[in-house]
Amino acid sequence: MPEPKANKDQVYADPRAQVAAFAFDERVADVFDDMIRRSVPGYGMTLSLLGIIAQHYAKPGTRIYDLGCSLGAGIASMGAQLTTPDVSFVGVDNSAAMLDRCRPNLATVEKQHTVELLCQDIQKTPIENASIVALNFTLQFIPKDERLELLTRIREGLAPGGILVLSEKILFDDPQIQADLTTLHHDFKRSQGYSDLEIAQKRAAIENVLVPETIDAHEARLSAAGFARDEIWLQCFNFASFLAFK
């Protein structure tokens, strides 16, 4: 599967007198593939297995939505492994900088499937006749009190037998577990070449922008949104991916 060109992430490499809130701007878009792969343990496996999930659950005549599609890695993974006919993809992101770099990464997918890219707020995106909706590391950027409405709309837009793939950074009620896994996450980042300065400045930038929740909170919300059941299919340190079934 072809991967987006990965420029090295050095966004937080130099000391800053004041660290601004994290944003998916031009500078982040230029290095995003490298940033997320070196920041999220298990990200590569999440992508590769997403293609297997798509092959199993995609239905002819339906759509697959990737909400918060960024550079298109999720669509590329699903499209590379999908043999189901008459399936179209809809990628949505509110960052024009991301979408400008997304389309070239989907050239192979577009040889077999229709791909529509929308620059808009995913909270305003109509979800219609979807066999799969992917929400990978995106819900955590939506205000907490607006997450249920989004998940409810997604569930209502799923075709019979449709699924939601939800991947998120997670919290733990037990403070020792939270501390242990945060430490391991930072150790992972160091193993990927990030300095302590980069880790600290990125953490400051993302605080109050990315707001994680516990597994119990996610599962309670999925139930409140009307999903029949959900399962955790992948967890790596303090990141987890759920399958939610209509």
TrEMBL record:
GO biological process: tRNA wobble uridine modification
UniProt keyword annotation of S-adenosyl-L-methionine present: yes
Catalytic activity reported: prephenate + S-adenosyl-L-methionine = carboxy-S-adenosyl-L-methionine + 3-phenylpyruvate + H2O
Keywords recorded for this protein, A-Z: S-adenosyl-L-methionine, Transferase
Protein family: Belongs to the class I-like SAM-binding methyltransferase superfamily. Cx-SAM synthase family.
Function according to Swiss-Prot or TrEMBL: Catalyzes the conversion of S-adenosyl-L-methionine (SAM) to carboxy-S-adenosyl-L-methionine (Cx-SAM).
PANTHER family recorded: CARBOXY-S-ADENOSYL-L-METHIONINE SYNTHASE, TRANS-ACONITATE 2-METHYLTRANSFERASE-RELATED
Annotated NCBIfam families: carboxy-S-adenosyl-L-methionine synthase CmoA
Protein name: Carboxy-S-adenosyl-L-methionine synthase
Native organism: Pelagicoccus enzymogenes
Lineage: Bacteria, Pseudomonadati, Verrucomicrobiota, Opitutia, Puniceicoccales
